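Here is one such tokenized protein:
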Amino acid sequence: MEEETDFNDILDDWFIETLKTYKDLHVYQLEHPTQVLEWTSGKTVCVAGFSPSKNEILELRLPQKLFAEENKGLCAERDFKVVHGGFTDGPVRCLRHVPGTRCVVTNDGLTSDLQVWSVGGDDSDVIRLTGRVEGRKRSRRRSVSEGGSFSIAARLSSQVLHGAQSGDVQLTQLTSGQILYSLETDSDDPLSSLRFVDDVVFLAGCSNGNVYIADTRTSAAPQLHPPPASSDASVLWWTEASSSCSVVRLSSAGQAVISDLRNPAGAASRAQLDVRSGRRNPDVRASWAPALDGCIAVSGFSGAVQIYNTSVWQTESREVQPLFEHRGHAVSSQSGGDVLVTSHVWHPERPRTLLSAASDGSVHVWDWVDQSAAGC
């Protein structure tokens, strides 16, 4: 009874705090947790379960109140709404929307194959499996527990870049199944990310810190950039590039290194993040804000999402504190510190709006308030 009272007190204190620190905060509860959050429009997002058997795949519409410019209190729609739904026969570990279409592609983390889905259409509210794409099988497939994860990057013309290791990355035309490009490397490093940096060039980040930069127009060998120097060879690395040519590499020990895409081997700035994780190999997500220069969001170390302002980092690594921390998943869950954030995404247009999901099935959309005069 005392523990319940303490929990309610913490929740009440946090709720009072949110009145000053959030412009908007909305909460949704999924039946099962998700590891994927993918925008299908500025107001809709796809989620899917990752349990070993059958899972839901859903398109959710965000609360209309979030987008009301005036008289928010008079807005009737204050909750998430399921607009399209379907079922998968297995887990969904990776999901990407194909720009300009009503299609998403998924991977189950078990094979290198893709599943292609139609989200609604023809006045239907069903998400239907419409095709499969066979992945490139070059070597033994590593599991997520070994530091690798399947990655997908989609672009216009229904072209999808996909793979699990540096040696099995390929660019596939979804409509024909034609392989347009294959990444040729001398190793099979587990991937942590794939991202197009423009229409023809992409970045492949590996969990050992290696970064490959390749041009799909040429068969020339990709540029290989080794990981930042680290005293611990067992750390894992996650890489993300921004539209302004900045690259962040973040380790499982909380070490962050910022480079310029034109010189990935160099380090423009470094920092030691305040992550305090007890997990040896966390599943980290680091993402650049699309509408805030120099801001990144970091999750996966705990039940929180942290926002950092990288523009104040220096060339020598120092401990830095987050500009903002969303603790809502851990605070509002009865399981407390056992809750882990499983995914987060920035809104593509709203500068300080993010969506986050956690291991207890909670999904939050929140618009944070920057209370620092020197902030982003």
Q: What stands out?
A: Residues 159 and 279 are 36 Å apart (CA to CA). The two ends are 43 Å apart (CA to CA). The chain has a mean pLDDT of 86. Residues 1-30+235-376 form one domain.
